[in-house]
Write a structure and sequence with these properties.
This protein has eight helices and four strands. The chain is α/β, with parallel strands linked by helices. The protein binds nickel (II) ion.
């Protein structure tokens, strides 16, 4: 069920039965020459919408921008500052709380979002807001990482991963007609500290990949990884739906 397709009357009816809502969140940021700018929100949206279908839970419109400052050295990246990200998450949660949602779950596709989302939750709790606020980053779930390791071994890396690129290849095949096919060497030996400025990131990772081999992406792998992500996220959301509200 998509919030964007409901009327307020239908939302009222939903809230009589349930108080859970999923919000897909990602980023608009470079994913190397091999991957799409929208990779993180396209994947998060696909996972969240399928989980919503399976659990009969409402899914809010996707937040397509996130905290991507270190990617700003690459054309096309659009980033929210850490402060804006915290503020946006708080405004979304506060709006939903006003209507009676109490289990508010961000399904996240971008690592850089996790800290500001959790900071927003901590700030809401300091303000004594009632409810369960959670962020689930699908690509960090151990079951998903196991499937990724089985397929890509040590070549998945941390950014522009063949896993996320495989899912987008499955969902947006037409966008890959213009992407390169040649393979590059893995930059596995680089040791860096985070956070990085846009200049530092580009210096460490000149083509935008972080220890990944996105050219290994295939639609069939995307199907397997997406399926596992949906299964694993559904399990977490089911647990959240069973928790007692304090
Ligand atoms: Ni990504």
């Amino acid at each position: 069920m998509l919030l964007e397709n409901l009327s307020y009357v239908e939302v009222e009816a939903y809230l009589v039965e349930k108080d859970t809502i999923l919000i897909p969140v990602g980023s608009t940021e470079q994913h190397s020459p091999y991957g799409l700018m929208g990779t993180d929100f396209i994947t998060a949206e696909a996972v969240a919408r399928e989980v919503g279908k399976r659990l009969d839970v409402l899914v809010a419109p996707t937040l397509s921008y996130g905290m991507s400052q270190h990617h700003l050295g690459f054309k096309g990246t659009i980033s929210l500052s850490p402060e804006t990200t915290v503020a946006v998450v708080k405004d979304i949660v506060n709006s939903l709380l006003l209507h009676g949602f109490r289990r508010i779950v961000f399904v996240n596709g971008h690592g850089g979002n996790e800290e500001p989302i959790k900071t927003a939750f901590a700030s809401l709790k300091q303000e004594n807001k009632k409810g369960i606020f959670q962020v689930i980053s699908w690509f960090w779930l151990p079951e998903v990482q196991e499937v990724e390791r089985d397929i890509f071994e040590d070549k998945n890396g941390y950014h522009a991963t063949p896993s996320e690129v495989s899912i987008t290849k499955l969902l947006r095949p037409e966008a890959f007609k213009t992407k390169p096919a040649e393979r590059k060497r893995l930059n596995n030996k680089i040791q860096v500290y985070f956070p990085l400025s846009p200049e530092e990131f580009k210096q460490a990772f000149p083509d935008g990949r972080v220890k990944s081999a996105p050219w290994l992406a295939k639609e069939k792998y995307g199907k397997l990884i997406l399926e596992e992500a949906v299964r694993a996220v559904s399990q977490r959301v089911r647990e959240i739906m069973k928790m007692k509200l304090l």
